[in-house]
């Protein structure tokens, strides 16, 4: 039977089918996001004691004059005020960052980035390490601790900021460590404040990336104009294990002019291509050979000089879009957008950046790998960590909601091919699922399973 | 009873799922995505179900027929979800085949389709085990254990872990049977899947009787073994037919 199955299938050792490699780039983003969330949930369950008010809550209560709620400042008006203050501070910082980038003060930006990464790892990392040591009763003396902590913090900060000089796995692990520590710190806020903060950041992210005057959009346009990279902490999902993945750079250079898609294309490009293709074949678009011609020449030029011809590609794409618009609109919506997705087969090299380690937005890098800002990691983990403070059922529900939101954002990225905010969809789904689980699901499941009734 | 016991219960419920994941699903990233989306589907169906039943809870403990209605509605809704999942899978299959044609690679083979249905079923099973067993397992990591009144011979955690294991197997392999049946349009297999699901769920009603869990749990595991054996037969038949057809074509 086994060999019957082996001869029938195009088995793994035989011809690889399309199923073998599809979706790999998406899983390469899902795994680190899941790892970050798992670590935060573990830290929260080990270290949090929900009965004692956190020192942060006490200080917030003192700062707001101690009036209002009885629960140490944990009421809705205080929460809204705090969230609003935070959003205003983040907006101001992002505008400052845009200004510095405009004035080409790159050393300032790099210094600020290094300072924030180091301070997160040193201060927050030290605090978490001390809490862990006391909770798990591990024996470690003060001198060794004072020796180990600065060294570890310095090494991880260097790994996070200089990806070219360390192995990729270490670089990605350092980024995840920074995200975990920051997220854990945020979960120490009181409950209503955390939820208000999450919703406010989701709305801010939406506005900052999509509105014409938004700071992130301004930063992105500056970066595209100058074809420069914004110095920021961004997680890029390159293959961690070169044995499994393909060598991205090699693939890019060796691309044939005619074959615009092969198995090693990213899933995001594939989705965009498939949807664009379906619309083309349905409409009988006669200008599509022209469109593809422009695309492949732009693709070739972009292969050799990854950034230089971006402006040329955009302008040529614009002219072909003008031709393509004469095609009659089909029953499928978003036809204008999908038409745009056909010419731009080469993904754009860069997208949004932001202040300190907060970088919101999701996009495609020059090697086609998906880039996700560290701020997104942090706020996803904050949501799941806060859910962990209630019960594990909410953790699972919120985890699934966030991954679903991430998947939807990636699909939209395939459609729109611009930088997109990664927070709003996931946070909305996460909050909705949290509320639904807490009100509806929990009662039902506990009723059924305590009676050992399952289905 | 300590971390070891908690981990043990978790592994009873989810061990086979872990090995299936590590051995089969994790090798192809698309299957991981299928698993996540089918888990999400199952969760959404469960939320809808709990929304419908929220007004009637808590059910008084004498009325076993209320539980029976609950189970019947739940199974009906979940079978409906399976059909919706099948429709979505057909659309996805068309897209994948179109893409494979474009890049001149072979289309989805029969094994691929079965793997996708396996991942889908595993997603349902994992969601079931996680929400019904794992989320209640947190006290098991502490120092004592817990017995339900009606089940005084087995710790509650052990009973729920065994039932979760049974349902994991049933969900996983009945999805393969169901997808094969919808594909080949075999009526008898299409009926077998909901019947098995309903029978297994109704069998847990036995747990309502005092001492019933000693009978209900092993019976459920027997049903799981039957499902596994039936799926094995269906898969072997389909694969040998496919092979014969390929040999005849060549």
UniProtKB/TrEMBL annotation, chain A:
<keyword id="KW-0812">Transmembrane</keyword>
<feature type="transmembrane region" description="Helical">
    <location>
        <begin position="142"/>
        <end position="161"/>
    </location>
</feature>
<dbReference type="InterPro" id="IPR001108">
    <property type="entry name" value="Peptidase_A22A"/>
</dbReference>
<feature type="transmembrane region" description="Helical">
    <location>
        <begin position="168"/>
        <end position="186"/>
    </location>
</feature>
<keyword id="KW-0378">Hydrolase</keyword>
<dbReference type="GO" id="GO:0016485">
    <property type="term" value="P:protein processing"/>
</dbReference>
<keyword id="KW-0333">Golgi apparatus</keyword>
<keyword id="KW-0645">Protease</keyword>
<feature type="region of interest" description="Disordered">
    <location>
        <begin position="279"/>
        <end position="304"/>
    </location>
</feature>
<dbReference type="GO" id="GO:0006509">
    <property type="term" value="P:membrane protein ectodomain proteolysis"/>
</dbReference>
<protein>
    <recommendedName>
        <fullName>Presenilin</fullName>
        <ecNumber>3.4.23.-</ecNumber>
    </recommendedName>
</protein>
<feature type="transmembrane region" description="Helical">
    <location>
        <begin position="115"/>
        <end position="136"/>
    </location>
</feature>
<dbReference type="GO" id="GO:0005789">
    <property type="term" value="C:endoplasmic reticulum membrane"/>
</dbReference>
<keyword id="KW-1133">Transmembrane helix</keyword>
<dbReference type="GO" id="GO:0007219">
    <property type="term" value="P:Notch signaling pathway"/>
</dbReference>
<dbReference type="InterPro" id="IPR042524">
    <property type="entry name" value="Presenilin_C"/>
</dbReference>
<dbReference type="GO" id="GO:0070765">
    <property type="term" value="C:gamma-secretase complex"/>
</dbReference>
<feature type="transmembrane region" description="Helical">
    <location>
        <begin position="396"/>
        <end position="416"/>
    </location>
</feature>
<keyword id="KW-0914">Notch signaling pathway</keyword>
<dbReference type="GO" id="GO:0005798">
    <property type="term" value="C:Golgi-associated vesicle"/>
</dbReference>
<dbReference type="Pfam" id="PF01080">
    <property type="entry name" value="Presenilin"/>
</dbReference>
<keyword id="KW-0256">Endoplasmic reticulum</keyword>
UniProtKB/TrEMBL annotation, chain B:
<dbReference type="GO" id="GO:0007219">
    <property type="term" value="P:Notch signaling pathway"/>
</dbReference>
<feature type="transmembrane region" description="Helical">
    <location>
        <begin position="215"/>
        <end position="235"/>
    </location>
</feature>
<keyword id="KW-0472">Membrane</keyword>
<dbReference type="Pfam" id="PF06105">
    <property type="entry name" value="Aph-1"/>
</dbReference>
<feature type="transmembrane region" description="Helical">
    <location>
        <begin position="157"/>
        <end position="179"/>
    </location>
</feature>
<feature type="transmembrane region" description="Helical">
    <location>
        <begin position="115"/>
        <end position="137"/>
    </location>
</feature>
<keyword id="KW-0914">Notch signaling pathway</keyword>
<feature type="transmembrane region" description="Helical">
    <location>
        <begin position="64"/>
        <end position="85"/>
    </location>
</feature>
<feature type="transmembrane region" description="Helical">
    <location>
        <begin position="30"/>
        <end position="52"/>
    </location>
</feature>
<keyword id="KW-0812">Transmembrane</keyword>
<protein>
    <recommendedName>
        <fullName>Gamma-secretase subunit APH1-like</fullName>
    </recommendedName>
</protein>
<keyword id="KW-1133">Transmembrane helix</keyword>
<dbReference type="InterPro" id="IPR009294">
    <property type="entry name" value="Aph-1"/>
</dbReference>
<comment type="similarity">
    <text>Belongs to the APH-1 family.</text>
</comment>
<feature type="transmembrane region" description="Helical">
    <location>
        <begin position="191"/>
        <end position="209"/>
    </location>
</feature>
<feature type="transmembrane region" description="Helical">
    <location>
        <begin position="6"/>
        <end position="25"/>
    </location>
</feature>
<dbReference type="GO" id="GO:0016020">
    <property type="term" value="C:membrane"/>
</dbReference>
<dbReference type="GO" id="GO:0016485">
    <property type="term" value="P:protein processing"/>
</dbReference>
